[in-house]
Amino acid sequence: VNAEPLPPKQFKGIAREVIPYAVRSAVAEERQEASASRIERQSPGMRLFVDPDGMDDAAVAQARSLLEDALQVLRARGGG
Protein backbone atom coordinates (compact mmCIF):
# COMPACT_ATOMS: atom_id res chain seq x y z
CA VAL A 1 0.00 0.00 0.00
CA ASN A 2 0.96 3.61 -0.38
CA ALA A 3 0.69 5.16 3.10
CA GLU A 4 1.67 8.40 4.81
CA PRO A 5 2.80 8.67 8.43
CA LEU A 6 0.59 10.66 10.80
CA PRO A 7 1.78 12.48 13.93
CA PRO A 8 3.09 10.13 16.66
CA LYS A 9 0.65 9.18 19.42
CA GLN A 10 0.90 7.80 22.94
CA PHE A 11 -1.20 4.74 23.75
CA LYS A 12 -1.95 3.31 27.16
CA GLY A 13 0.24 0.31 27.88
CA ILE A 14 2.87 1.18 25.24
CA ALA A 15 6.00 2.90 26.57
CA ARG A 16 7.04 4.55 23.31
CA GLU A 17 5.22 6.72 20.82
CA VAL A 18 3.44 4.89 18.00
CA ILE A 19 3.41 6.29 14.48
CA PRO A 20 0.07 5.61 12.79
CA TYR A 21 -0.20 5.57 9.00
CA ALA A 22 -3.00 6.66 6.66
CA VAL A 23 -3.46 4.41 3.64
CA ARG A 24 -3.66 6.48 0.45
CA SER A 25 -3.92 3.76 -2.22
CA ALA A 26 -3.30 0.09 -2.96
CA VAL A 27 -0.10 -1.06 -4.69
CA ALA A 28 -1.95 -1.95 -7.89
CA GLU A 29 -3.08 1.69 -8.14
CA GLU A 30 0.26 3.25 -7.23
CA ARG A 31 3.17 2.40 -9.51
CA GLN A 32 5.35 5.51 -9.67
CA GLU A 33 7.28 4.49 -6.54
CA ALA A 34 8.36 1.14 -7.99
CA SER A 35 12.04 0.50 -8.59
CA ALA A 36 13.19 0.82 -12.18
CA SER A 37 13.97 -2.91 -12.42
CA ARG A 38 10.69 -4.11 -10.89
CA ILE A 39 8.25 -5.93 -13.18
CA GLU A 40 4.62 -6.38 -12.18
CA ARG A 41 2.02 -7.65 -14.66
CA GLN A 42 -1.27 -9.49 -14.44
CA SER A 43 -3.55 -10.86 -17.12
CA PRO A 44 -5.80 -13.92 -17.48
CA GLY A 45 -3.64 -16.97 -16.81
CA MET A 46 -0.61 -14.94 -15.71
CA ARG A 47 0.52 -13.08 -12.61
CA LEU A 48 4.13 -11.88 -12.54
CA PHE A 49 6.00 -9.88 -9.92
CA VAL A 50 9.79 -9.63 -10.03
CA ASP A 51 11.84 -7.16 -7.98
CA PRO A 52 15.53 -7.97 -8.42
CA ASP A 53 16.52 -5.16 -6.05
CA GLY A 54 14.87 -7.08 -3.21
CA MET A 55 16.48 -10.44 -4.04
CA ASP A 56 19.70 -12.08 -2.94
CA ASP A 57 21.79 -14.20 -5.36
CA ALA A 58 19.97 -17.43 -4.46
CA ALA A 59 16.57 -15.86 -5.08
CA VAL A 60 17.75 -14.47 -8.44
CA ALA A 61 18.96 -17.94 -9.46
CA GLN A 62 15.65 -19.50 -8.41
CA ALA A 63 13.66 -16.84 -10.31
CA ARG A 64 15.79 -17.39 -13.41
CA SER A 65 15.16 -21.14 -13.25
CA LEU A 66 11.40 -20.70 -12.78
CA LEU A 67 11.18 -18.22 -15.66
CA GLU A 68 13.13 -20.59 -17.93
CA ASP A 69 10.70 -23.38 -17.00
CA ALA A 70 7.76 -21.10 -17.80
CA LEU A 71 9.29 -20.22 -21.19
CA GLN A 72 9.66 -23.92 -22.02
CA VAL A 73 5.98 -24.51 -21.23
CA LEU A 74 4.93 -21.53 -23.36
CA ARG A 75 7.16 -22.58 -26.27
CA ALA A 76 5.70 -26.10 -26.15
CA ARG A 77 2.26 -24.56 -26.41
CA GLY A 78 3.31 -22.64 -29.53
CA GLY A 79 3.80 -19.25 -27.89
CA GLY A 80 7.13 -18.64 -29.63
What does this structure look like?
By secondary structure, the protein is of the alpha+beta class. The chain is 25% helix and 24% strand. It has one helix and four strands; from the N terminus they run ββββα. A two-stranded antiparallel ribbon has the order 1-2. The longest helix has 20 residues, at 57-76. It is elongated. The two termini are 36 Å apart.
Radius of gyration: 20 Å
Widest β-sheet, arrangement of strands: 1-2
Characterize the largest beta sheet: strand count, sense, and whether it forms a barrel. Answer: 2 strands, antiparallel
Helix content: 25-40%
SSE topology string = EEEEH
Oligomer description: single chain
Task: Put the structure in a nutshell.
The chain is of the alpha+beta class and 80 residues long. It has one helix at residues 57-76, and strands at 2-5, 21-25, 39-43, 46-50.
Attribute tags:
alpha+beta; two-stranded antiparallel sheet
Furnish the topology, listing elements before pairings:
Blueprint: E1 2-5, E2 21-25, E3 39-43, E4 46-50, H1 57-76
